């Protein structure tokens, strides 16, 4: 009898070890492709899928190991609690450290670009270069020059409003907003589909949290080379844009020739020329 108890105890211990030794759960899905000694990590923008990087990734995965993220709660990925800009930044850093990824290049679009800047500022030892695709250190300051982040910002009103929407209302909101962000009409339905597959609570909460984020001072600690690709319309606000980036001493600001926020779709030739020159040099 003691023999069987001992066997059961050993099996139970093995089961527990297996369960607790499983890979840590991160607030994002990761797809790893390509081969190369140096790595590129791609962070999509708000409510976007990793698929936004498909063409970009294909351009680099022959020479680089590519890690492509989709954040939890976005584009059909299962949501996780405590979704926030700061939490996502810290967990991306943990992923980089725990997987021993060295000399990393980060390419981020929109909110992903802001995450790239935050990571380069807070974890300079992890990152060799960043590319920021159409993002600003403080988006809200574009509309409100006197903007200041609020401590303990209450996002419950926008979360309640967004979660109360019917599916038809939410879809209509996406159909109204997305054509303002991408000129390539062949990509509009794809981007809309990512939005409507996103978890509403995450969608609203992260939108609210990101709108309360101000990196204008933080970026002063970034030391790595930083390529900033901006949509063509922003050339009309050069003084304002450059004021936002004045503390990022390594910034190389470039304005697209045409198109809107999804530069990778709207000014593809220019976009790849900029990336290839910066990353492969």
Strand adjacency order, main sheet: 1-3-2-4-5-6-7
CATH top level class name: Alpha Beta
Q: What is the succession of H and E elements?
A: HEEHEHEHEHHHHHEHEHH
Named at the architecture level, the CATH assignment is: 3-Layer(aba) Sandwich
| Mean pLDDT rating | 92
User: In percent, how helical is the residue content?
Assistant: 40-55%
CATH topology: Rossmann fold
Dominant shape: globular
Poorly predicted spans: 1-22
C-alpha-based Rg, rounded = 21 Å
Q: How many discrete domains?
A: 1
Strand content: 5-15%
Strand count: 7
Q: What distance separates the N and C termini?
A: 70 Å
Largest sheet: 7 strands, mixed
Sheet/helix structural class: alpha/beta
Number of helical segments?
A: 12
Write up what this structure looks like.
The chain has 281 residues and is an alpha/beta fold. It has a single domain (24-279), classed as Rossmann fold (3-Layer(aba) Sandwich). Helix content is 42%, strand content 15%. It contains twelve helices and seven strands. Strands 1-3-2-4-5-6-7 form a seven-stranded mixed beta sheet, sandwiched between helices. The longest helix is centred in the N-terminal third of the chain and has 19 residues, at 2-20.
């Amino acid at each position: 009898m003691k023999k069987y108890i001992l066997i059961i105890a050993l099996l139970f211990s093995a089961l527990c070890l297996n369960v607790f030794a499983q890979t840590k759960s991160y607030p994002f899905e990761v797809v790893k492709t390509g081969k190369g000694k140096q790595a590129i990590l791609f962070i999509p923008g708000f409510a976007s899928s990793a698929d936004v990087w498909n063409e970009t990734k294909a351009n680099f995965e022959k020479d680089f190991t590519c890690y492509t993220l989709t954040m939890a709660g976005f584009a059909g990925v299962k949501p996780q609690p405590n979704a926030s800009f700061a939490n996502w930044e810290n967990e991306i850093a943990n992923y980089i450290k725990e997987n021993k990824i060295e000399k990393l290049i980060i390419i981020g679009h929109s909110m992903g670009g802001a995450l790239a800047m935050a990571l380069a500022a807070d974890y300079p030892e992890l990152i060799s270069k960043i590319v920021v695709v159409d993002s600003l250190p403080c988006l809200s300051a574009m509309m409100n020059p006197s903007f200041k982040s609020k401590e303990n910002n209450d996002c419950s009103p926008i979360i309640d409003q967004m979660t109360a929407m019917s599916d038809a209302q939410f879809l209509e909101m996406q159909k109204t907003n997305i054509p303002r962000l991408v000129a390539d009409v062949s990509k509009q339905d794809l981007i809309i589909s990512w939005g409507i597959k996103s978890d509403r609570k995450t969608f609203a909460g992260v939108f609210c949290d990101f709108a309360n984020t101000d990196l204008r001072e933080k970026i002063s600690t970034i030391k790595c080379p930083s390529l900033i690709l901006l949509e063509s319309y922003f050339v009309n606000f050069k003084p304002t844009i450059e004021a936002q980036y004045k503390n990022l001493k390594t910034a190389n600001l470039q304005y697209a020739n045409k198109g809107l926020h999804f530069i990778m779709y709207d000014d593809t030739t220019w976009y790849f020329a900029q990336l290839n020159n910066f990353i492969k040099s």
